[in-house]
Amino acid sequence: ISRCAGMTDEEMEEIGRTAPVIRNRRKINSVRQNARAVLAIQKEWGSFSRYLWHFTENKIIVHYLQDNDDLPASSPLSEKISADLKKRGCTFAGPVIIYSFLQAAGIINDHLESCPFRSTNRT
Asked: How far apart are CA 63 and CA 14, in angstroms?
């Protein structure tokens, strides 16, 4: 994160010209901007993890879903975190991408009830 936060304008331009990534300049610049915002959050909260978990009072949000069609794209929680991140300077951090991140981080458990990987334990 600190490496991304410290990237120069020249490095950002070079990435846009040469790296096999999205060429959208605003998205590339958001990497640096978001990294700086996360560093500020880490400084305020002690860690980005602590910041995220405070929204759920350190509890996993468990959804009891039967079918993939029941999976939401976002939630009131992801909307709340997205809005807070935007206030802190993050871009490209809308409720849908935040919801996906919360799933990946294990804060939201959307494994179907029939899934063998479903667990309600926080590890």
From this structure: 43
